[in-house]
Design goal:
The structure holds two protein chains of two kinds. Chain A contains no helices and eleven strands. By secondary structure, chain A is mainly β. The chains are: A mainly beta, B mainly beta. Chains A and B meet through strand 9 and strand 10 of A and strand 5 of B.
C-alpha cells in the first residue's frame, strides 16, 4: 500500500530557531502533499497544500513566511518552521494521495514539535 | 459555512457494538471518509462512502445518507485496541477535505 514517511518523529528546539520536517512518499509519486497541524484534543487543521514545482497554497491565517514549504520533487515535501515560538508547539502531519482526488489520504506518522 | 458534527466522546464495552454518528453541511459533496487516530499517532484510513448505503469491511461498517447529510461508523465486537478517536471528513465540491473534530471512543472491559 501507499506509504508516507515523515521525519523526524519528534523534535525539541529552542525559541527562535528553525526546524525542518520532511515528508516523503515512498512507493508513489505525489504531485500534491498536504500539511496539517493538530493541537491536543482538537481535530486536524489544514495549514497548506504543497504543489510539486510551484508555490504552496496556504490556508487563511497561516503565515507563509513562517511556515516555509518546499516541494522540489514528486516524492519529497518539506515544512520549515522558522523562528519557532512556544505557541508553535504542536503535532504536524503530512499526507498525500496515491490516486485520484477521491482517493483517501495517506498520512505520515507525524512530528511532535516542542519549542522551549 | 461548512460544518461537520460528531459526538465528542463515547464509551462502550469490550465485545459490544457502537455507532458513531456524523452529520455534515458542506458546499458540494464528493464523498465521506472515516479515519481512526490513536493518541499521539497519525490518522489511518478506515472507509469511504460516496453513494447511499452501507459499506462493510470486517468488524467496521460505514453508512451514508446524502439526502440527510448523515453518516455513521459501526464497530462490532469491540476490542480494547479500538480505543481511539474516529474522524469524519467530507470531500466538498473542490475535493477539499472538511474535518470533524473527532469522536474519542473509550472501550471498557
Amino acid at each position: 500500500g501507499a506509504v508516507v514517511s515523515q521525519h523526524p518523529s519528534w523534535v525539541i528546539c529552542k525559541s527562535g530557531t528553525s526546524v525542518k520536517i520532511e515528508c516523503r512518499s515512498l512507493d508513489f509519486q505525489a504531485t500534491t502533499m498536504f500539511w496539517y497541524r493538530q493541537f491536543p484534543k482538537q481535530s486536524l487543521m489544514l495549514m497548506a497544500t504543497s504543489n510539486e514545482g510551484s508555490k504552496a497554497t496556504y490556508e487563511q491565517g497561516v503565515e507563509k513566511d513562517k511556515f516555509l514549504i518546499n516541494h522540489a520533487s514528486l516524492t519529497l515535501s518539506t515544512l520549515t518552521v522558522t523562528s519557532a515560538h512556544p505557541e508553535d508547539s504542536s503535532f504536524y502531519i503530512c499526507s498525500a494521495r496515491s490516486g485520484s482526488e477521491n482517493s483517501p489520504l495517506h498520512f505520515g506518522n507525524g512530528t511532535r514539535l516542542t519549542v522551549t | 459555512g461548512q460544518n461537520i458534527d460528531q459526538p465528542t466522546e463515547m464509551t462502550a464495552t469490550e465485545g459490544a457494538i457502537v455507532q458513531i454518528n456524523c452529520t455534515y453541511q458542506t458546499s458540494g459533496f464528493n464523498g465521506l471518509f472515516w479515519y481512526q487516530q490513536h493518541a499521539g499517532e497519525a490518522p489511518t484510513f478506515l472507509s469511504y462512502n460516496v453513494l447511499d448505503g452501507l459499506e462493510e469491511k470486517g468488524r467496521f461498517s460505514s453508512f451514508l445518507s446524502r439526502s440527510k447529510g448523515y453518516s455513521y461508523l459501526l464497530l462490532k465486537e469491540l476490542q480494547m485496541k479500538d480505543s481511539a478517536s474516529y474522524l469524519c471528513a467530507v470531500s466538498d465540491s473542490n475535493y477539499q477535505l472538511i474535518w470533524g473534530a473527532g469522536t474519542k471512543l473509550i472501550i471498557k472491559p
